[in-house]
């Protein structure tokens, strides 16, 4: 069993499914509100490691979907400043376990990292099921 600090948007359907899968796989999940966390640039950047800058962002965030923010045109400093101002821009979840930080929920990556049971039906645990709507995930 691994203790996973799980930064989520409370009520997000996929974050709920991800936490359930982690718990069903025997992990202890400590859920934290990503939107209320007192982030710093350094603290956020630690999660992004070697990811390309556009992968730091929540593609379902309204400002990105509407084209107001174009991650591929930003510097690291600009991206982090925007995320500190508007945490909805941060790709979810952010996870901390065994001294490592991860962003997003790639099943194969989580499985290799801390172990994970196969989800039934191979569901998409990354794309917001409400992404066809005008805004990002809303509380269920």
Give a brief description.
With 140 residues, the chain is an alpha+beta fold. Helices cover 30% and strands 14% of the residues.
Search tags:
140 residues; alpha+beta; Glutaredoxin; four-stranded mixed beta sheet; 5 helices; globular; disordered C terminus
Explain the overall architecture.
With 140 residues, the chain is α+β, with helices and mostly antiparallel strands. It has a domain at 1-34 and 92-125: 3-Layer(aba) Sandwich (Glutaredoxin). Helix content is 30%, strand content 14%. It is built from five helices and four strands, in the order βαβαααββα. It has helices spanning 13-24, 41-48, 62-65, 76-85, 107-114; strands spanning 3-8, 28-33, 94-97, 100-103. A four-stranded mixed beta sheet has the order 2-1-3-4. It is globular, with a radius of gyration of 15 Å. The chain starts with a strand and ends in a 26-residue tail after the last helix. Residues 131-140 have low confidence and may be disordered.
Please outline the major beta sheet.
4 strands, mixed
CATH architecture of the domain at 1-34 and 92-125: 3-Layer(aba) Sandwich
Query: What is the N-to-C succession of helices and strands?
Result: EHEHHHEEH
The total count of strands amounts to 4
Q: What is the structural class?
A: alpha+beta
Helix amount = 25-40%
Present the secondary structure layout.
Blueprint: E1 3-8, H1 13-24, E2 28-33, H2 41-48, H3 62-65, H4 76-85, E3 94-97, E4 100-103, H5 107-114
């Amino acid at each position: 069993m691994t203790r996973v600090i799980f930064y989520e948007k409370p009520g997000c359907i996929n974050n709920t499914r991800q936490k359930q899968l982690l718990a069903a796989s025997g992990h202890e999940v400590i859920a934290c509100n990503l939107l209320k966390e007192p982030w710093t640039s350094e603290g956020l950047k630690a999660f992004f490691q070697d990811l390309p800058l556009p992968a730091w962002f929540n593609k379902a965030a309204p400002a990105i979907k509407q084209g107001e923010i174009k991650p591929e045109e930003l510097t690291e400093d600009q991206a982090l400043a925007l995320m500190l101002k508007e945490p909805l821009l941060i790709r979810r979840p952010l996870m901390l376990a065994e001294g490592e930080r991860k962003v997003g929920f790639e099943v194969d990556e989580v499985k290799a990292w801390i172990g994970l049971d196969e989800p039934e039906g191979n569901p998409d645990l990354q794309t917001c099921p409400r992404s066809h709507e005008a805004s990002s995930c809303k509380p269920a």
